[in-house]
């Protein structure tokens, strides 16, 4: 039962990453739209750029964690042995 719970947790983490990627694309779209205007709102651009950067860093960290986990599983380490190295 613990393996099932861990699998669900991993799937939820991937769903969160997917949602965050959607937010990244939305931030990028807002910045592009703002840049297409003749007079841009610098504060909006700064906020969106900061949100974009933070989201990309978070997604990168989460995907790295997922890849590490999958690499360990592929290397024959069981769920019960993860983190004991």
TrEMBL record:
Chief location bin: nucleus
Top-level taxon of origin: Eukaryota
Subcellular localization(s) per the UniProt record: Nucleus
Record-level GO BP terms: regulation of transcription by RNA polymerase II
MF terms in GO: transcription coregulator activity
Entries under InterPro entries matching the protein: Mediator_Med11 (IPR019404)
Originating organism: Carlito syrichta
One Pfam family this sequence matches: Med11
Listed name of the protein: Mediator of RNA polymerase II transcription subunit 11
UniProt similarity note: Belongs to the Mediator complex subunit 11 family.
Quaternary context: Component of the Mediator complex, which is composed of MED1, MED4, MED6, MED7, MED8, MED9, MED10, MED11, MED12, MED13, MED13L, MED14, MED15, MED16, MED17, MED18, MED19, MED20, MED21, MED22, MED23, MED24, MED25, MED26, MED27, MED29, MED30, MED31, CCNC, CDK8 and CDC2L6/CDK11. The MED12, MED13, CCNC and CDK8 subunits form a distinct module termed the CDK8 module. Mediator containing the CDK8 module is less active than Mediator lacking this module in supporting transcriptional activation.
Keyword Transcription included in the entry's annotation: yes
GO cellular component, as recorded: mediator complex
Keyword list, A-Z: Activator, Nucleus, Transcription, Transcription regulation
PANTHER family in UniProt: MEDIATOR OF RNA POLYMERASE II TRANSCRIPTION SUBUNIT 11
Role: Component of the Mediator complex, a coactivator involved in the regulated transcription of nearly all RNA polymerase II-dependent genes. Mediator functions as a bridge to convey information from gene-specific regulatory proteins to the basal RNA polymerase II transcription machinery. Mediator is recruited to promoters by direct interactions with regulatory proteins and serves as a scaffold for the assembly of a functional pre-initiation complex with RNA polymerase II and the general transcription factors.
């Amino acid at each position: 039962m613990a393996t099932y719970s861990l699998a669900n947790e991993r799937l939820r983490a991937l769903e969160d990453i997917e949602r965050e990627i959607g937010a990244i694309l939305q931030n990028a779209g807002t910045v592009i739209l703002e840049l297409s205007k003749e007079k841009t709102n610098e504060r909006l651009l700064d906020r969106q750029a900061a949100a974009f950067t933070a989201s990309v860093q978070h997604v990168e960290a989460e995907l790295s964690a997922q890849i590490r986990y999958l690499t360990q599983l592929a290397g024959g380490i069981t769920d019960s042995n993860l983190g004991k190295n």
